[in-house]
Write a structure and sequence with these properties.
alpha+beta, Peptidoglycan synthesis regulatory factor (PBP3), Domain 2, Beta-lactamase, 3 domains, six-stranded antiparallel β-sheet, five-stranded antiparallel β-sheet, elongated, disordered N terminus, disordered C terminus
Length: 442
């Protein structure tokens, strides 16, 4: 038989097994707080990852290899020791050497160089051609005898003969025929006076401000110039192939006149191949050109000596000038193709080198320094073959610029390096950004 136990009067209630509301609240706080921390960490990690993966990579600053300037000892020039003089070279600025080069002096028959240039300007002749025919008359014979009476240099002329323009110029330039300078001025310009006006205007156009022409022959002492101007005039003459060929000729056979000899006794020696003698009552002059060999190249000197006592003294001075100046030219290999000139290294271990894309050799004289200045850009990301800077070679007035090319790529460091190197990222660099990350599929 069962027995029911009744609770004792006034006994406390039995404990309940359900959590109270306060306990529920505490548990919710703990759970949601933990979730908030986890979410915060996840959000923070996401922000960090996004920033790290999207930040520009730092610059790779080049370590530049700037070559030392190249120079040699100064060339010792054997100077004339008299008169005024100057020597330049085609393709070079200024003079190799000079003395009294801005002092005006009578130039005598060197003035015929201007006559020849302006006649050829009025009546151009193609290289290898003879030019128009010129008829000579009794008036030209009278000019011949007038020049003889003035003790001027002449070349024979025959009334009724006909010479080509080139033959006429040869008769004027080689034996320094004053009579032919007058006959050519009359033929080309109508009169010597008209020629003189044109000649002085042309000199002004060429910037030969210290040169004055008084006649077509140079017989007058009023035909004056400076050594500096005459070197420039010689350069202009050599640029005319017809005139350059004439002044390099030692002798020529002209049927109507016979053999015509050049008065320049240095032709064919010491590399001399022009240009014009000049003689006054008091002095001898020579405007000259000479070719000197430098390795596989050839340099043309243009110079003048004014005011020598005799032509022999002037020839000796010019020979010494040429022989002392020529060895002072040299070829300098300033830069070889492929030479490394800047090195790059990234914080994530990649390296690349900027190299010269071509070699540079320069021709210099005496102690002219050859300098190479290197400029290379700081880089973020770059591909092999990119142009990243320049090497500038300077030698006197010559300047050559060569591009620098990268020999290897500087690639993005990748996700892992970015996430593990927060201090290695340059957040302020506004340059090449990494490629966008692909959106996951799925």
């Amino acid at each position: 038989m069962s027995r029911t136990t009744e609770p004792a009067p006034n006994a406390p209630p039995a404990p309940s097994h359900r959590p109270s509301k306060a306990v529920y609240r505490r548990r919710r706080i703990v759970v949601f707080g933990a979730l908030a921390v986890v979410l915060g960490l996840l959000v923070g990690a996401g922000v960090y990852a996004d920033r790290a993966l999207g930040a520009p990579v730092p610059f790779a600053v080049p370590a530049i290899d700037d070559p030392e300037p190249i120079a040699a000892e100064a060339t010792v020039v054997v100077e004339p020791g008299f008169g005024t003089w100057a020597v330049g070279a085609t393709g070079f600025d200024g003079f190799m050497a000079a003395g009294g080069e801005d002092t005006p002096m009578p130039m005598a028959s060197i003035a015929k160089v201007v006559t020849a240039l302006l006649v050829l300007q009025e009546h151009p002749v193609g290289e290898g051609e003879a030019g128009p025919e010129i008829a000579y008359t009794g008036a030209d014979v009278d000019i011949y005898w007038d020049m003889v009476a003035q003790n001027g240099s002449v070349a024979p002329v025959v009334a009724g003969s006909s010479l080509s323009l080139v033959e006429s110029l040869e008769a004027m330039m080689l034996p320094s025929g004053n009579n032919y300078s007058i006959s050519l001025a009359n033929w080309a310009f109508g009169s010597v006076d008209a020629y003189v006006d044109r000649a002085n205007a042309w000199l002004a156009e060429q910037g030969l401000a210290q040169t004055r022409i008084a006649d077509s022959s140079g017989l007058s002492l009023a035909n004056v110039s400076t050594a500096a101007d005459l070197v420039r005039l010689g350069g202009i003459a050599l640029r005319d192939p017809v005139l350059a060929d004439i002044v390099a000729t030692q002798s020529v056979e002209i049927p109507e006149l016979g053999t015509i000899e050049n008065t320049n006794g240095l032709l064919g020696t010491h590399g001399v191949d022009g240009i014009k003698t000049g003689t006054t009552d008091d002095a001898a002059n020579l405007l000259f050109s000479a070719d000197v060999a430098v390795d596989d190249e050839q340099v043309t000197l243009v110079g003048v000596v004014l005011g020598g006592e005799t032509h022999a003294a002037v020839r000796g001075a010019v020979a010494a000038l040429v022989d002392s100046i020529g060895p002072g030219f040299r070829t300098v290999d300033a830069l070889e193709s492929g030479r490394p000139l800047a090195a790059y290294a990234t914080p994530w271990g990649q390296t690349a080198t900027a190299r010269a894309t071509e070699g540079v050799s320069v021709l210099v004289w005496s102690d002219t320094a050859v300098d190479v200045a290197v400029e290379a850009d700081p880089l973020h990301l770059a591909d092999a073959g990119d142009e990243v800077g320049t090497a500038t070679v300077t030698a006197g007035g010559e300047v050559v610029t060569v591009p620098l090319e990268l020999d290897a790529s500087l690639d993005d460091p990748g996700t892992w390096w970015r996430l593990t190197n927060p201090g290695g990222l340059d957040e302020g660099a506004a340059a090449v950004q990494p490629s966008p990350r692909p959106t996951p599929s799925g």
